[in-house]
Amino acid sequence: MATERWNSPVKVGFEDADARTVNGPFDALKCLADLWPSMRGLRYIKARSTCRAALDGRKSVEEARAEFLAAAEEAKLKLH
């Protein structure tokens, strides 16, 4: 469900937008869909899939957080 939250939020800096605080898999999916610099890459695809699975209860929210961080590193985004 959309109210699932990570233990620790992630602040991501985007080139063409202000930094965003991502609190959980729902926020992460919004960033991946609306702000991500490239809709490609193994980590991007895995993060999207894992965030959806976390919202469905098939994966933990912390697994989704780890994949989101990996996707951010792959995209060379600044993490604060």
Topology:
Blueprint: E1 10-14, E2 17-22, H1 25-34, H2 42-56, H3 61-74, E3 78-79
Antiparallel strand pairs: 1-2, 1-3
Helix pairs in contact: 1-2, 2-3
Class based on secondary structure composition and strand pairing: alpha+beta
- Strand share of the residues? 15-25%
Tally of separate helices: 3
Shape: globular
Considering DSSP H and I runs of 4 or more, what fraction of the residues is helical?
A: 40-55%
Biggest beta sheet attributes: 3 strands, antiparallel
Order of helices and strands: EEHHHE
Rg computed from alpha carbons, rounded to a whole number of angstroms: 11 Å
Question: What does the model show?
Answer:
The chain has 80 residues and is of the alpha+beta class. It has helices spanning 25-34, 42-56, 61-74, and strands at residues 10-14, 17-22, 78-79. Strands 2-1-3 form a 3-stranded antiparallel β-sheet, covered by helices on one side. A hairpin with a 2-residue loop joins strand 1 (10-14) and strand 2. Helix 1 (25-34) runs antiparallel to helix 2 and helix 2 (42-56) packs antiparallel against helix 3 (61-74). The model has no long low-confidence stretch (mean pLDDT 93).
Summarize the structure.
By secondary structure, this protein is of the alpha+beta class. It has helices at 25-34, 42-56, 61-74, and strands spanning 10-14, 17-22, 78-79.
